[in-house]
Amino acid sequence: MTVAGQPDPATPAYTFDNDDPAAAERLALSSAVLDGFTISRLAPLGDLTGRRCLELGAGNGSVADWLVDQAGPSGQVLATDINTRHIPADRGYRVVRHDLTRDPLPDGPWDLIHARLVLRHVPGRHEILRRLAGALAPGGTLAIEEWEPYRAGLVLAAPEAEAEELFYRFETAVEQLTAARAVDLHWPWQVHRAMAEAGLVEVDTAVHARSWPGASVGARHYAATIRLLRPRLLEAGMTGEHLDRLSGYLQDPRMVVRGLLTVSTIGRRPTS
């Protein structure tokens, strides 16, 4: 397969740069926040022993680690990302640098394809989903998980009014930054229909979120996002003092925030 070169300047850049020094921490916190729900969705799909599994946008490889354990020595797991620097190379799966917008899909067919927080960042996501559905083996499963920034109830409790105000200003700025890079905020709710239109069956969608008090893993994930995006948040109109104060609030257990909604959609290719 073709390995992607440097991104074209005309292509919108990924909002969360994995080359940033704060990226490793943010990826680790993302795994801590999301892996439990992801595994709860993938585990009931059936025995993966000996199966071929493709993990797209593998991040730090945490889900690929789990898939290796499920597939066993007779199975195959391929972990791909446009930037593979945080994916360990010694965990029993293969690692390939891959750009969904340019490169052909890795040779299938695949028994399971999983992509988490990937397609909403990618132009041509509807066509890519159709290609993914077509790369499944008969009876194979496609699992797509996305964050949906539903704003109501993002702050469940706050030590003072300023904390809530700053958090919503931060979320507004992040939405502006992602929208400027062609992120489709409506995509998570379009996946179910797109899978059905691609010919997948037994399509099922589940939505998950939970509360995170200050200093918890979820609150620390928000703080890591502030560190990673800080230069662009300043360009978006927040001040250094705002960001520092919000980071402080996110360490206060009296501050309770809700995680973004995780929309998980799973569909299966018919056996015949």
Top keywords for this entry?
272 residues; alpha/beta; seven-stranded mixed beta sheet; three-stranded antiparallel beta sheet; 10 strands; 22% strand; elongated
Structure description:
The chain is 35% helix and 22% strand. The chain is built from 7 helices and 10 strands. The chain has a 7-stranded mixed β-sheet with strand order 3-2-1-4-5-10-7, with helices on both faces. A 3-stranded antiparallel β-sheet has the order 6-9-8, with helices on one face. The relative contact order is 0.16.
List the helices and strands and how they pair.
Layout: H1 23-42, E1 52-56, H2 62-71, E2 76-81, E3 94-97, E4 110-116, H3 125-134, E5 136-148, E6 155-157, H4 161-179, H5 191-197, E7 201-208, E8 211-213, H6 217-235, H7 240-249, E9 256-258, E10 261-268
Parallel strand pairs: 1-2, 1-4, 2-3, 4-5
Antiparallel strand pairs: 5-10, 6-9, 7-10, 8-9
Helix pairs in contact: 1-6, 4-6, 4-7, 6-7
- Strand elements, count: 10
Task: State the end-to-end CA separation.
Answer: 28 Å
**Which structural class do the helices and strands define?**
alpha/beta
Shape: elongated
| Strand arrangement in the largest pleated sheet | 3-2-1-4-5-10-7
Q: Short summary of the structure?
A:
This protein has 272 residues and is α/β, with parallel strands linked by helices. Helices cover 35% and strands 22% of the residues.
